[in-house]
Design a protein that fits this description.
The complex is a heterodimer.
Chain A: E1 4-7, E2 10-13, E3 19-25, E4 31-38, E5 42-51, E6 54-57, E7 65-66, E8 76-78, E9 87-94, E10 103-104, E11 108-112
Parallel strand pairs in A: 2-11
Antiparallel strand pairs in A: 1-3, 3-8, 4-5, 4-9, 5-6, 7-8, 9-10, 9-11
Chain B: E1 4-7, E2 10-14, E3 19-25, E4 32-37, E5 43-49, E6 55-58, E7 61-66, E8 71-76, E9 85-92, E10 102-104, E11 108-113
Parallel strand pairs in B: 2-11
Antiparallel strand pairs in B: 1-3, 3-8, 4-5, 4-9, 6-7, 7-8, 9-10, 9-11
The chains are: A mainly beta, B mainly beta.
């Protein structure tokens, strides 16, 4: 089954404790992206990647890192989480070239205390 | 900076009625997407509109795109309760070198009451 898999689904952590949210897709998509969703703000792009070893900043990249060592995986790293990073995070992927719908993961609800 | 504005942001309507959600965007683009999100769930793709005048229909939902007006509409016909959800439009800022990504509107929270 074609899917984008995110883990964990829920995460509670404390300020400053490094964490990684994993994202994996099995559709051989070139393009992968991370979004955060906050009430009243919709979805905002954090980082995206157009292929292995190619990543770029989205609209709200501060406090986040990503890597794309393999085509199927695109982890989101918070080196030193802060409470303002409490949010619902979505990973998404699609074929490159535009005009294709995004496939979204099931989301990760992160709370930073 | 691309801005995508949806309205209304909240809509409560009765079953059987028709209504339209509007999505305006601030820069040239001919790629617009509509997504649906149920509470606590991920986003599901509804429509992909890729040219001026594009119209897509699925059941009671119909989406259209007017690139000259920078406007897309999502029309709901004879609404039913199952269509209650949050609807997002998103515009592609593809710039030739690759997909820069989608800019989303803030979403329209739709409640359909019996």
């Amino acid at each position: 089954e074609a899917q984008v898999t995110q883990n964990p689904r829920y995460l509670i952590t404390v300020t400053g404790k490094k964490l990684t949210v994993t994202c994996s897709q099995n559709m051989n998509h070139e393009y992968m992206s991370w979004y955060r969703q906050d009430p009243g703000l919709g979805l905002r792009q954090i980082y995206y990647s157009m292929n292995v070893e190619v990543t770029d900043k989205g609209d709200v990249p501060e406090g986040y890192k990503v890597s794309r060592k393999e085509k199927r995986n695109f982890p989101l790293i918070l080196e030193s989480p802060s409470p303002n990073q409490t949010s619902l995070y979505f990973c998404a992927s699609t074929y490159l070239g535009g005009g294709e719908k995004l496939f979204f993961g099931s989301g990760t609800q992160l709370s930073v205390l | 900076e691309l801005k995508v504005e949806q309205n209304p942001l909240f809509l409560s309507m009765q079953e059987g009625k028709n209504y339209t959600i509007y999505c305006n965007y601030s820069t040239t683009s001919d790629r617009l997407y509509w997504y649906r999100q149920d509470p606590g769930k991920s986003l599901e793709s509804l429509f992909v509109l890729l040219s001026n005048g594009a119209v897509k229909q699925e059941g009671r939902l119909m989406a259209s795109l007017d690139t000259k007006a920078r406007l897309s509409t999502l029309h709901i016909t004879a609404a039913v309760h199952d269509l209650s959800a949050t609807y997002f439009c998103a515009v592609d800022t593809y710039s030739g070198g690759g997909a820069d990504g989608l800019t989303f509107g803030k979403g329209t929270h739709l409640i359909i009451q019996p």
